[in-house]
């Protein structure tokens, strides 16, 4: 695992953005896996800035989002579809045809998940997946469990995740109880993985993920077995690590 310790969130986002731009420059039709949530917002802002300064074009890239809530349609302000458009896609030159986000209101979620996997295969796999980390160690919506998940699937969200994500909703009751998510196998098949971790609330989870045993109870720990992982942390997230780099 390549671990990059940054001073603060701003530096974390700058470094992450430089890496994404480098990948797109070396492969203009790169395939990216993208997260939502608070952590990647600064990265998306940096990338928009670099696009406006003509440092990068997203015209040929394809994207696959990690997950989507079940039951929220594209126009719902809390859907991840809306999040991606409002915070990233509408501000760059990406081709709408190349954007792939799971449909949270599909009436056949198994088919939706299988199609998503097939599309990833058709474009030759994901070159770089960017991940955030849940306070409970989840990646995508792969929650702590007794086994590591396989391909993209429908998942029941854990109470901890519902509570953590309720900050975006009017109340905890409004947070969907299920989601569609790339599975751990889907994530492990990506050629490169970049994990962004910011804030003290993530310090324990990232310590366990990097230094602890590999266990499905802490899904991110599986990344220890991936051959090309970069973890970018700010000082708040890294303060519990044994080995301060
Ligand atoms: C979101 C996702 C989640 C988040 C995680 C951290 O697409 O896959 O795993 O990355 O819950 O969320 P934030 O960044 O809001 O702390």
Key terms:
alpha/beta; single chain; 245 residues; 10 strands; 8 helices; binds fructose -6-phosphate; three-stranded antiparallel β-sheet; seven-stranded parallel β-sheet
Describe this entry's structure for a reader.
The strands form two sheets. This protein has a seven-stranded parallel β-sheet. Strands 4-8-7 form a three-stranded antiparallel β-sheet. It has helices at residues 9-26, 41-52, 80-87, 109-122, 159-165, 184-188, 203-211, 235-238; strands spanning 2-6, 31-34, 62-65, 67-69, 99-100, 128-131, 153-156, 178-181, 192-197, 229-234. It is of the alpha/beta class and 245 residues long. It contains eight helices and ten strands. The two termini are 13 Å apart. Fructose -6-phosphate binds next to loops.
């Amino acid at each position: 695992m390549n671990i990059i310790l940054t001073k603060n969130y701003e530096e974390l986002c700058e470094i992450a953005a430089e890496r994404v731009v480098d990948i797109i420059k070396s492969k203009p039709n790169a395939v990216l896996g993208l997260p939502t949530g608070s952590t990647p917002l600064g990265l998306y802002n940096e990338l928009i800035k670099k696009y406006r300064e003509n440092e990068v074009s997203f015209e040929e890239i394809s994207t696959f989002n990690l997950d989507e809530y079940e039951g929220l349609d594209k126009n719902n302000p809390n859907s991840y579809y809306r999040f991606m458009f409002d915070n990233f896609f509408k501000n760059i030159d990406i081709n709408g045809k190349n954007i792939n986000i799971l449909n949270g209101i599909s009436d056949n979620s198994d088919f939706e998940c299988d199609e998503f996997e097939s599309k990833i295969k058709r474009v030759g796999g994901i070159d770089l997946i960017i991940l955030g980390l849940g306070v409970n160690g989840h990646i995508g919506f792969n929650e702590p469990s007794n086994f590591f998940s396989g391909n993209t699937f429908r998942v029941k969200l854990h109470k901890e995740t519902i509570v953590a994500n309720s900050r975006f909703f009017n109340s905890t009751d409004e947070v969907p109880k299920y989601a569609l998510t790339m599975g751990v196998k889907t994530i492990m098949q990506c050629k490169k993985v970049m994990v962004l971790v910011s804030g003290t609330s993530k310090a324990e989870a990232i310590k366990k993920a990097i230094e602890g045993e590999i266990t499905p109870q802490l899904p991110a720990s599986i990344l220890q077995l991936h051959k090309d992982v970069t973890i970018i942390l700010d000082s708040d997230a890294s303060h519990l690590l044994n080995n301060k780099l």
